[in-house]
């Protein structure tokens, strides 16, 4: 089965380079234009489209796949950034000592009031397996989710293995993968 992993279009917080996790922010005009441009450039048809429950993903999916009713995968929500949510790197470096510790851990440490990387990986793995179980017999499916979700899925299932941050995808980027029932093989796309 081919799987298209698609990051949502840009939001105002994305453009300001703020941590955006569980805040349910819509696409900004630039994000809507990104999605329209991606649609105009053409995407392969998908038999099923899955989305994070957050509006920016549902909004992107509606633009990219207007003929498909998306299926929500609750566990595809972005990481909970807790006290880091809505704040910039510079602000956090100045005002939040826990942020420097989190950076020193390469994102593996605790986020005050938020989620840890192990929890993100676990729930994204479970969501991915749920998605493929709902897609038996499909030739191609798509998932519109978040940068953290895509990195977690690629880190968990790619063959050859990939480090978490090697799976970074820009807003409205697409990663094309083949699923053999156990592992993902990258076929191309917009990985940085």
TrEMBL record:
Domain of life: Bacteria
InterPro entries named in the record: His_Pase_superF_clade-1, His_PPase_superfam, PGM_Phosphatase
CDD domains in the record: HP_PGM_like
Taxonomic source organism: Pyramidobacter piscolens W5455
Lineage: Bacteria, Thermotogati, Synergistota, Synergistia, Synergistales
Gene3D superfamilies: Phosphoglycerate mutase-like
SMART domains recorded: PGAM
Protein's UniProt name: Phosphoglycerate mutase family protein
């Amino acid at each position: 089965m081919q799987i298209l992993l698609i990051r949502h279009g840009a939001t105002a917080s994305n453009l300001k380079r703020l941590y955006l996790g569980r805040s349910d922010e819509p696409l900004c005009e630039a994000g809507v234009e990104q999605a329209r441009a991606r649609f105009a450039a053409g995407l392969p048809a998908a038999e099923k489209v899955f989305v994070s429950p957050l509006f920016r993903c549902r909004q992107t999916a509606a633009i990219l796949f207007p003929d498909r009713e998306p299926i929500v995968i609750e566990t595809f929500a972005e990481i909970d950034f807790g006290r880091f949510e809505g704040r910039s790197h510079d602000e956090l470096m100045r005002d939040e000592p826990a942020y420097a510790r989190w950076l020193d851990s390469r994102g593996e440490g605790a986020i005050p009031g938020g989620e840890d990387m192990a929890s993100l990986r676990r729930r994204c793995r479970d969501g991915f397996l749920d998605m493929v179980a709902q897609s038996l017999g499909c030739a191609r499916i798509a998932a519109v989710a978040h940068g953290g979700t895509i990195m977690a899925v690629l880190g968990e299932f790619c063959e050859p293995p990939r480090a978490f941050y090697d799976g970074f995808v820009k807003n409205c980027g697409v990663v094309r993968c083949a699923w053999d029932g156990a592992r993902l093989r990258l076929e191309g796309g917009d990985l940085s």
